[in-house]
Amino acid sequence: MTTQTRSALLVTLAAAAFLMVTMGVRQSLGLFVSPLNSSTGLGIATISFALAIGQFTWGAIQPVAGALADRHGPGKVLAAGALLAAAGMALTPFVTSGFGLIVTLGLLASIGSGAGSFSVLIGAAAQRLSAEARGKAAGVINAGGSLGQFVFAPVAQALIQAVGWMAALWSLAAMTLAALPLVREVAPRHTAAHPHAAGESPWRALGNAFGDRSYLLLNAGFFTCGFHIAFLITHLPQEVNLCGLPPTVASWSLAIIGLANIAGSLAAGFATTRYRSKYILAWMYGSRAVLIAAYLAAPKVALTFYLFAAGLGFTWLATVPPTAGIVGKLFGVRFLATLFGMTLLSHQVGGFLGAWLGGLAYEGTGSYQWMWYADMALAAAAAIVNLPIREARIAPAPAAPAGAT
Q1: Measured distance CA(18)–CA(38) in Å, rounded
Q2: pLDDT beneath 50, residues of the chain
Q3: Hey, which of 55, 65, 82, 201 would disulfide with 351, CB 3.0 to 4.6 Å?
Q4: Which 3 state secondary structure label does DSSP give 243?
């Protein structure tokens, strides 16, 4: 293994480990909705709105964090993100109003986890990798986030039951701070920021991207992905409760989603080397529509939730490697953190609506039935809009020379 290969492997694994913490903690916050409501009496809709603000904020910070990383290097951005995320979670037990929740979980924790998420981490790794290796690396990094969900969801639920939701949040804040040493591996201090050529800037690159129809279609499909994920992360525990099942079914369902997405992310990363990413995305979104229809028709028992979680989990955030791959193919990797960050913003606009509308639907009708129908329709639409995206065919691997061993 060459020094360059070892370096690329190290930064990929360190980025995956960092994402495991930031995503694992963030994806477990839906487990706190019910205990927060019981303790504060703020109401499901108010708490859902704060988490919906967090969904949007997590996306809104992505292009900003990406641009800062593209201009100044990713190290400081990642470190600041971990500190802010920990602060938001540590302060939440001290607030007693909806506005306070918006500040702590909706802004501080979400800005922090967003700054330590996909756009900066995948952008940092892409700068050290060949074009052929980027898709696989994105799959590995993304799998780290899924592993975090698998690990942190049951841990968070166990902490809530053992020590209460306040101490559980403080524990998650401490775990986030423990990830800070990984920043040194993802972005060593000697790594210099890239100088800009004349007329080059992240914002100019962003303006050019918005003039590209394929980029807009990609963002439209990713919007739906955010709607699905935020709705389920925020409201699956309450859906489980409506079905008369214990809260451990929700935490294990979230864990199964994360475990299945490890396999899905790795598979998606490798698939990008053989198939066009737009077809991978169309298949993923289409499969979600089928899975939701099957869930609605099935009896609401624990096994149904576990099977639904496994099926949906396979494509959960496995959309990230092919989406990032298309952005890299269309515009190169120089401003990948910025451009993919904006794509993640569209994801989180969908996330905001998924989390918020879910809360409104529950308080208005006492169920999530209409949200499931909306989820299914959006999944089918996302499958269709990815097909016209401009993407070159995958070139076949060169044949080995005769006599080679």
Answers
A1: 32
A2: 192, 198, 399-401, 404-405
A3: 55
A4: coil
Buried b (16+ CB within 10 A) or exposed e, 120-132: bbbbbbbbbbeee
Closest CA to 361 of 377, 372, 352: 372
Structure-token match 């969904």, residue found? 55
Q: What gap in Å lies between CA 99 and CA 106, rounded to an integer?
A: 9
Q: What is the pLDDT of residues 34-88, one digit of tens each?
A: 898 888 888 888 888 898 888 788 888 888 888 888 777 888 899 999 999 999 9
What is the enclosing helix (H) or strand (E) of 209? helix 202-209
pLDDT at 5 (0 to 100): 65
Instruction: Give one DSSP letter per residue of 359-382, joined into a string.
Output: HHHHHHHSS-HHHHHHHHHHHHHH
Task: State the first-to-last Cα distance of the chain, in angstroms, to the nearest integer.
Answer: 18
Q: 45 to each of 48, 98, 187, 230, 250, how far by Cα in Å? A: 5, 10, 40, 14, 19
Distance, in Å, from the CA atom of 62 to the CA atom of 119, rounded to the nearest integer, reads 6
The predicted pLDDT at position 132 comes to 63
Give the helix ranges, DSSP H, for 73-127.
74-91, 98-101, 109-115, 118-126
* Homologous superfamily assigned to 7-184+202-385: MFS general substrate transporter like domains (1.20.1250.20)
Distances in Å between the Cα of 354 and the Cα atoms of 49, 396, 405 are 10, 40, 54
Asked whether 143 and 265 are in contact (CB, 8 A), the reply is: yes
For residue 107, the 8-state DSSP code is I
Tokens of 284: 């993923």
Q: pLDDT tens digits for 181-238? A: 998 888 766 554 555 554 567 778 888 888 899 999 999 999 999 898 889 888 888 8
Q: How many CB atoms lie within 10 A of CB 210?
A: 11
Question: Residue written as tokens 């995305």?
Answer: 281
Contact 272, 135 (CB under 8 A): yes
Nearest-angstrom CA–CA distance, 340 and 118: 8
Domain limits, the chain? 7-184+202-385
Q: Copy the structure tokens of residue 341.
A: 């960050």
